[in-house]
Amino acid sequence: MSAPPKSTKRPVKLGCKSVWKIFGDNPSEFLNQTQNPSDEQLAASGMIGAVRDANLDILEGEIFVIMGLSGSGKSTLVRCMTRLIEPTAGEILFEGQDLLKADEKELIEYRRHKMGMVFQHFALLPHLSVLGNVAFPLEIQGISLAEREKRALEVIELVGLKGRENYFPSELSGGQQQRVGIARSLCVEPEIWFLDEPFSALDPLIRREMQDEFLRLQSMLKKTIVFITHDFDEAIRLADRIAIMKDGKIIQIGAPEELVLNPADDYVAEFTGNIPRAKVLSVRAVMANATAKEFGGKVSADTKIETLAAKIIGSKKPFSVHDGSDIVGQISANKVFSVLAGQE
Amino acid sequence: MSSTATSFEKPAERSTNWWMIWGIALALVLICYLIKDTIPWAFKYPRSWTIPLRFWISDFMKWLMDGLDFGLFTFRELTRAIAWVIEQPYWVAKSLLASGFLNGRGSAAIEIFPRLPWVAVIGIVMLIGWKAGGRKLALLAGGCFLYLAVFGQWDSAMTTLSSIVISVPFGVMGGLLLGIAAFRSPRFNAALTPILDLMQTVPVFAYLVPILILFGFGPVSAMIATIIYAMPPMVRITILGLQQVPEEITEFGRMVGSSPRQLLWKVQLPAAKQTLMLGVNQVVMLSLNMVIIASMIGAGGLGFDVLNALRRLKIGEGIEAGVAITLLAIALDRLSQALAKKPAPTSEAFQGTHRNNPLKAYPYLSAAIALIIVTWALGAFFPAIQIYPESWEITTGTFWGDMVKWININFFDQLDAFKNFLLLNVMIPFKRFLLGLPWIGVVILIAIAGAQLGGWRLAVLGALLAIFIAIVGLWPKAMITVYLCGLSVVIACMIGIPIGIAAARNERLHGIVQVVIDTLQTLPSFVYLMPVVMLFRVGDFAAMLAVIVYALTPIIRYTDHGIRNVPQHLIEAATATGCTKRQMLWKVQMPLALPEIMLGLNQTIMMALSMLVITALVGTRDLGQEVYIALTKADIGRGLVAGMAIAFIAIIADRLIGAWSKRRKLELGLE
Prior knowledge:
The complex is a heterodimer of chains A (344) and B (671).
Chain A: E1 12-23, H1 27-33, H2 39-44, E2 48-59, E3 63-67, H3 74-81, E4 89-94, E5 97-98, H4 104-113, E6 115-118, H5 130-140, H6 145-158, H7 174-186, E7 192-196, H8 204-221, E8 224-229, H9 232-238, E9 241-246, E10 249-254, H10 256-261, H11 266-273, H12 277-280, H13 283-286, E11 297-300, H14 305-312, E12 319-323, E13 326-331, H15 333-340
Parallel strand pairs in A: 3-8, 3-9, 6-7, 7-8, 11-12
Antiparallel strand pairs in A: 1-2, 1-4, 4-5, 9-10, 12-13
Helix pairs in contact in A: 5-6, 5-7, 6-7, 14-15
Chain B: H1 10-34, H2 53-66, H3 75-99, E1 101-103, E2 110-113, H4 118-133, H5 135-150, H6 154-184, H7 186-201, H8 204-215, H9 219-244, H10 247-255, H11 260-271, H12 273-293, H13 301-312, H14 315-341, H15 347-351, H16 358-361, H17 363-381, H18 383-386, H19 397-436, H20 439-454, H21 456-471, H22 475-505, H23 507-522, H24 529-536, H25 540-564, H26 568-577, H27 581-614, H28 623-633, H29 636-668
Antiparallel strand pairs in B: 1-2
Helix pairs in contact in B: 1-20, 2-29, 3-6, 3-9, 4-5, 4-14, 4-17, 5-14, 6-7, 6-9, 6-12, 6-13, 8-9, 8-28, 8-29, 9-12, 10-11, 12-14, 13-14, 14-19, 14-24, 19-22, 20-21, 20-29, 21-29, 22-23, 22-25, 22-27, 23-25, 24-25, 25-27, 27-29, 28-29
């Protein structure tokens, strides 16, 4: 498993240990008899391995993206994490406590106060206004009307829907509906925020806008986020770390840069192959040792090549690369061009 | 069966096989005829072989009513208690709408407080119409109710309405609760489904008898019958509505930490509201239909007027009451449909809500209450506002009577010739043919059809149900039912399928047909008896005509729908190949629409069977008559057994056609 992106080690918020979800007749007995069943064993007994031996740690405050095509098991995995689906085997550790051991009452408490979820098709209640929808999770908790509407109005303003509190879902565009979905999930101030393909049902332009909005919100809120998508571009844009799934298995977990530089197999390479490297690679990944006497400018080691490109064009001298106050290397315009040209 | 899709050879192989089996079976039947004298039992089921099931049932009921004692209370006390619970709200509704609040009984009763003035009732109906669907609906509903007042049908109509007003909430709530239970527990669902099937196929008359015994003669029994009759669709729609709630909405409800109760009442039921309201509409319409029929066990009201007119052959009075039922049905249907179709609330309406001012928050309710108070007060001084004055009433009874007389004088020969022609050349020969069939042969043919269409389970089911009819000694009467039903259905198809095809190909005609069949479908079955009796007097022919008209709607609807639903890309492909319109219809649309049309046929058969029982009133000699006689004699066993026989005919037809349609749809890749 790869290292977290930042140098400081953060605590694990949610962990999955050998999580399995198998559909079929009596799957748990099957799993007991056949340890770690192969594709052939699953097929032979008519079982479907939706999630197979998933191991991952989601760190506090990071955006963790689970990426996979349809049928890869990503939606099932996130539903196992929230126990919307009971896993066949394994452990789901929320701050070290196994969620699978929680009884119905404890689970309701977790969901009321610690978790929020956004759905692909918004899942808004058609009979409630924007205000009613956003305040709904608080209504379920039994909070008084005045109190819950006050808090709901705050989050509605946060997602930019102020003035539309009394609209009903059928009167809103897709993008606005998902803003309601986001506001609703944030209303309870969850500690971990699940987003299940939240922007997949939106048009490309709106999707882009919503991604920006999402990043803006996260820069303010600093939630721990599990984000599901089938769109690798989206994953690259948003993720601190990405887990790539295929046929129920997690193939690789890593920061976008790592996936691009060291794809675990051909399947991952197929996704990363089409990604413009300058967007993903940071200066640190391609810099050389600092040998020059004079530098044309300064750049931080974590800067993306794309960002550096505009500044370094025309500079005959290389830029010095800094990590904090130390100079850790240098980078020349030629190097940047070769990344932009896709040669690195 | 499942391998059909994978191989092109197999179906051909199998069909030759079936041809041979059918050939052998038909040959067997023929042989039966040749040796008829040596095996008379195969043609006429011997009386000594019959099982006296009807007497067993009657004895059991007798024991239930007289012998069963739970210790604290007897069974009879239990049924009376249930009746009491329903009687209280009914008494309030009836006092309010029809009789006024009375002290004392019979002619000695003194009115303590008057009923709702007719002006107020019409006003309230118009307010509901306005709220649900706007001014047009308000005028329609108000007009329908005005007719009731003007044509002297007010008292009866209000009696009928008070039964409905009370039955509907019971039916809706009962259906909702059963539906929720079935949705939550698959096991309960599995147990409930066959009961619902049976409840919807057993003719209504059949369960009037046990209810009559259990709860006595009177409006409460009629309402219990109504509730039982109207509940099954609500149960089904509740299950369907809850199942159709998007998975994500349910997941959302669970993710915000709803308890199971919150999930159901705050998330799933509101999300299913649109579908549930359709169920309410169904309950309202079925309740009206049943309240009319239940006039036979003392519901009173408009149904009793029609029944009375039929018995005395007072056509004019019957028609007036029939029109009143029709208008009441249309008003109730449009109102409840408008409520059901009411779109999701909008911000405009919502922003107009004033939480703290009830007058502004509930303008319609406030207006209704004001109206009641004002008219009640004024009614004390001006009786015309309280009760529609008799001198203002118009009666068309004599007009209708004269018209029927005129038709019968001028067209008697033509009508009679038409009737006799069909009777002598089609109906009677067909009836003789069916009655002449050996019962054992029919059982074998049903079994083979079952095996071919749906496998051995269906074969066994069909054969057992048919054998039951023979064993209880009702075979000849069942054959008369099959003859009347069969002919009616064939004629209904001959009329309905062409209309459906035409409607599918012409938008304007489609619009007209929709309105006509929507209206026909809201009419209680009783109403259909009036015109046919008027023109053709009693007998098989009149019965058949009523059945045909009643059963016509589904075959038209499904044909139209089936052809319209042929996938557009296939139509485009056929057009691109150069199909003429005629080729398009016969080579593309009809074959693909056939499974859907068969479902329409299925519905038509079901409706024909249910109507057939009601036509017992105009003198048929089939199972329906058996049930009707049992009703008049309060003979539970006889009524239930005959009712079950009808239900079994319905189930056999339903399963065979359903199996065929399902298989064909799979083969065509439409499902």
